[in-house]
Amino acid sequence: MFRLALRTLRFRKGGFAASFAALFLGVVIVTACGGLMETGIRTDVPPRRLAAAPVVVTGDQLYRVPKDGDAERVPLPERVRLAPGLVTAVRAVPGVARAVPDVSFPVAVLGPRDRRPLDASGPPAGHGWSSAALAPYRLSAGRAPRVPGEAVLDAPLAAAAGVRPGGGVELVVRGAAERFLVVGVAAGRAGLPAGVFFSDPDVRRFAPERIDAIAVFPAKGTGSGELRGRISAALVGHDVTVSAGSRRGRAEFIAARPAGEVLIVMSAVFGGLAIMVVVFVVASTLGLSVQQRQREMALLRIIGTTPGQLRRMVLGEAVVVSVLAVASAQAFGARAGRALFDRLTEHGVAPAELAFRQGWIPAGTGAGVGLLTAVVAALIASRAAATARPAETLTEASLQDRPLGWPRLLCGLICLAGAGALALVTALAMSGPVAASTAGPSAMLWAAGLALLAPRIAPVITAILRPVLRAVSGNAGHLALLNVRARRIRTAAAITPVMLATGLATGLIYLQTSQSADARQAFAHGLRADAVVTSSTGGLSPGLVDAVRRTPGVAAASDLVTSTGYVEAPRFGSQSEEGLPLRGVTPEGAEATTAVTVTAGTLTALRGDTVALARGHARRIGGGLGLGDTVTLRLGDGSKADLRVVALFTVRSGPETVLLPASLLAPHTTAGVPERILVRAAPGVDHERLTAALAGLTTGRPGVRVTDREGAIAADAEQEQTGAWVNYMFVGVITGYTVISLVNTLIMAASERRREFALQRLIGADRGRLLRMMGVEGLVVAIAGVLLGGVVSALTLVPFGIALNGSPMPRGPLWIYLTVIGSAGALTLVVTLASSWSAMRPRPVEAAASPA
Q1: Mean pLDDT estimate for the chain
Q2: pTM over 0.90, yes/no
């Protein structure tokens, strides 16, 4: 029977091509998502600046959140620094030939004419010259810096700035511009990040008491693995990480581990959704292909073929198609994964330093999904034809109708029940954007349940549409409606991909637009500032806020420093592994520029080791905290701070935050300086006058920019759209796959009816009348698919909207929905008419005499 299957495949090229396309693209999508997951799991970051050092010692970037039970260690958001005394301890370890401390801080090189920051090969960083050998860099001209005021630029930066040894260059460090004498130019290997090297006194001035890493070189005869073990043993009790080999890159780029976790979650969510769609599409395509051969299988049974032989024949065909599709997809899965990863790095979702890795596991997973789905679908599809009586099968084939089996009915009801449960959880137990984690899977379950029950639902929709279509389409419409009613199984198969495309696209896109709109509204409500001062040079000078406050027309101004922290003591039982958002503010302007309402104490007392807590947080920490109590926080760089509560407040909009003095929080961030300054206008001063008054600050302060309130909101919306783009990309991939399934199904359905069209033409129907009939059938399929897709999206979006902001209506432009349904309807009609016209091309006599 397997040989027979191979011989007969050439007579069913349409079904073969449709099944091959569904399997091929499905395996490519699943493999690509698997590649993103493997990249996130491996988090492979090749070392760059520290490439020459066999062993690297850094601060422990992982933190165990204090809570009941075993808590997973989470990455800290800021660079964890090392105590300077650890350099001496590392040098004392046997086998250490050299231990070089490395310090890194943001630097901006200003152009000689316009004083704008240069970006020759990425944002530059400042280092001490003693660590230049770690990359390694070597002097290509000049000498090393020795005294304050001297600097060495790497070759690309020196070329961009147009300076040579002996020339001057203006640099911005910690928000302040200074002029330095360029005493040398350093050359390194290709791909190194841009760097500026200073003398040791300048490094101590710019980054006091800061060591980012210790690069260790082993003595002769000592291996890097052995040395790593000795250093780890010598530094027991210190919060450090000793890395060797490929793990040195993680020590250098602290953003790699969080980005890897984002990739894991993203690929798991969309990969799981892609697998569900692939399984459903492939099973539907193969099932339809088998259903179209009921007459052939009945005749085989009549001439003596056993049920087992029939199953083996169908299974053999499925295996042949799936093996060819899987083998062809292997070469494209890695390319598709790489293309998706490149788009993610372009939009800043994943750092460019992260290396894409896709081994045999993603490829094996994609192949397994394709093969297993094809085999199971073939077995299920062939079961009815193999076990039914031949005469009954012939009758069903001629009627093109059969009852809905109880397994399919049961599976459909289970899917709907699961979707309903997820919808209830979304609406009643979830809140905020996290509700998307249950709303997304519910969309697929709603679609799967309705697709399984489509043969029962299609006649109901057809009955509703019958009066209108008969009134506007005449005899052609009457004949089309009779065909739809008689071919409810085939009609349901055509409706399903339309429903999947419109329902999933509308539901998932409006999930994202609703989240984005809610985030923009929360940002706008929480922004009390009338203007925002920012910098493109890596941060603002700590004293700039005082100059802003003295500007005419300014009522209040406050630095803003953002980070994440954790409550160490007293116990905070509801603490999330994501941590608490920390905001550093200036006490004089905090209350006027922060969207909080103080209920006890005052924000002007935020000086020194103090903190202001939201009422909700204060109630949950240690059974309740009040003014004067002490709370211990673990800041973003791992430092502990014992802080006295000086104010309690309620948040007007957005998440509850923890307020600290900016002077306390800024040194515990990677940048070390404020990110922006929030400015409140004096009474009677409009935004334009305020912005014009602050514009004077940009003169003589390179990189400093002043943005009004509308500009700040627009900048936040643009940043939000960058994150939303990722979801749109994955939704586009999945929707595109369902659209291909739609085209496949419609082409298969039209090709099956070649003999029917020929017989109708032989009894007098012309091609135009038949095309009008098929146009009405396509219209029924499009309308029914759009209606069911609307049900899927509504059942997904209403619970999510209730959880997000209490409104059942999704937020987003109407043109998205109109575009989705218009495209789906137009595509259905075009493909239906085109495939029907193609099926009518042979002469009627020849087509009528051809096999079914």
Answers
A1: 82
A2: no
